[in-house]
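Data availability (excerpt). The following record was deposited with the supplementary files.
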Amino acid sequence: MVLLLYYGEGMTMREIGQTLDVSESRVCQLHSKLLIRLRATLKDPRKAPPAAA
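Predicted structure:
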């Protein structure tokens, strides 16, 4: 959801935080973690961490 809102909808991290009812700082943390997972998946799909439930 964070990636969709940030890149797809062009929302700021502050706006995303308000939408998801979390802090801007938490949105930034989630964004960073998601980018790490995405890069790992693109580099080697077999080593991708399991998707969150």
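Summary of structural features: Helices lie at 2-8, 13-20, 24-43.
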